[in-house]
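User: Hi! Is it possible to get a structure for several chains at once, not just one? Here's what I have:
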Amino acid sequence: MIFVTVGTQLPFPRLINYMARWAQTHGERVVLQTGDRSGFNGCETYRSLPGYQFGTFMTEARVIVSHAGIGSILATKAINKPIIVVPRRAKLSEHRNDHQLATAAALDGRAGLRVAWELDQIPAFLDGAIEPPEAELHPQFNQLVDRISTFVGA
Amino acid sequence: MVRVLAVSSGGGHWQQMRLLSHALGNVDIEYACSAHVGDLKVHRLPDCNMRTPMQLVAGVLAAWRLVYRVRPDVVISTGAAPGALALIIAKLLGHRTIWIDSIANAEQMSLSGRLTRRFSDLWMTQWEGVAEETGAVFAGSVL
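Assistant: Yes, the chains can be modeled jointly so their relative placement is included. Here is the combined structure:
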């Protein structure tokens, strides 16, 4: 199963429409979380999902296709699933600015993560095997926590 | 025990806050979020952003009430605007403050982050390049 999620803040029709079309020509089950509409295109489609159901779809999926939101990236890492991210573009009115392009560029190359700069890169990523993300938290995580703990006095 | 108020928006901001705060040791934490997170113990704040002035006013009042009620030793925020407001008000009320700019801001400090600069006792980014450009503290990141 492929779970497509675009977050709760803004719709992302460019990605949703592309994945709905992909689903029509492939046998694999595709679940779409769209941010703006439910039930269309022959796919299981949800505007938004309560946390437990979001978690169920994340767990069932073999790969997650997502906007380049940190929430999605952290969520897939937490359950050891690969993610394909598509950055939203400000010039297409997909977000207020291009910070998702910057995030994607900065994270590109991490294990378990692929960046589809263009939509037509997605099928090759779906056909190939993507390794799972690194299980352990980055050593930089502990350094950040230490710095905060020291300041807080915990 | 140190009393911490952790304030953030939903989605990625919230997840970064949970990751970081769960790793903090011996602290008493109260959470506030501007999105529904399905946990009744989490204080709810109205959502706002820096581009909608009227909502900002409501955000300021809600943040002031929250900080006044919780009376934390330290306020921590991972963004965005509602967290920035709570942090600024906390500083004005004499509490210590930590800003951790979202890891989503890889190239420049967020607008909310820039506003919190003078009100943050510890003003952090999760990217080394942003630290070099802005003078923010870089110690590490959640990813």
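Helices of chain B lie at 12-23, 53-70, 81-92, 111-116, 128-134. Chain B touches chain A through 43 residues (CB under 8 Å).

User: Great, thank you!
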